[in-house]
Amino acid sequence: VVYVFTDCVFFFLPGLGFCYSIINGPTNATVLAGSEARFNCTVSVGWVILIWLSNGNPVLTVINSQGAVETSDRFTSQNYTSSNGFTSELIIQNTQLSDSGKIECSIQQLSESSFAFLSVQVNGSLFIKNSTLAVKENSTVEIVCEALGWAPAPDIAWMTNDSFIDKSKYVTQQSQGSNDLHNALSILTLTPTDTEVLTCLADIEALPNPQNATVTVIFVNSTI
To answer: What secondary structure, in 3-state letters, does 35-66 show?
Structure first.
């Protein structure tokens, strides 16, 4: 016999009665493609089955009496048991752009589930065509920085001698690339008065530090 109450399901079997629910569900994660993504789901004592879904597709099942049932090398798990409940940690290996989306923990009771979102990002390439550039006095020069194959399109910023350059000095355009990747082209316009090192910075949330490319602008005095 099964009696259903607000947040739990009570099973009354000969000599047995229990209620279980999700205590803590997974939290959002942002990772770089190729790295691991981890999600935790904690259920109360008495749980029977826990199913992990990625974008609505079951990827791993944990059965109390049996353990984890893994159907893919990329989706594995670690389990932790305490006096308060059971925690399943879903580990997604070698994350791909297509893994982005909804990660759901379900206990298959009263349609109870908890979900989070995974954002897989791609760190593309970044370059300035010239590593050094000579500029004469009173001359204006355009420095082009190009970011290729990113997801999402990166935020671009410029620095000179460790100080950020005002955004009014450069223009950045974004474009759609192939395979759901994005490109960005940033053009910095300046009139140098001295030799300086310019740095183009590209940043996305998953990067611990922005990727950078540099160019040395050599100021040539016309009187020399």
So the answer is: CCEEEEEEEECCCCEEEEEECCEEEEEEECCC
Distance (Å, whole) CA 168 – CA 153? 20
Distance (Å, rounded) from C-alpha 223 to C-alpha 199? 28
Alpha carbon distance 79, 72 (integer Å): 17
| CA 168 vs CA 13, 24, 158: distances in Å | 72, 46, 11
**Residue 172 pLDDT > 60:** yes
Confidence bin at 147 (pLDDT 50/70/90):
very high
DSSP class of residue 20 equals -
The confidence band for 18, taking pLDDT boundaries of 50, 70 and 90, is low
| 50 close to 62: Cβ distance less than 8 angstroms | yes
- Containing 126, the helix (H) or strand (E) segment is strand 125-128
| Residue 168: strand, helix, or coil | helix
Nearest to 34 by CA among 112, 190, 134, 151: 151
The string of pLDDT tens digits covering residues 21-60 is 899 999 999 999 999 999 999 999 889 999 999 999 999 9
Give the whole-angstrom CA distance, residue 4 versus residue 108: 13
- Is the pLDDT at 222 greater than 90, yes or no? no
The amino acid at 25: G
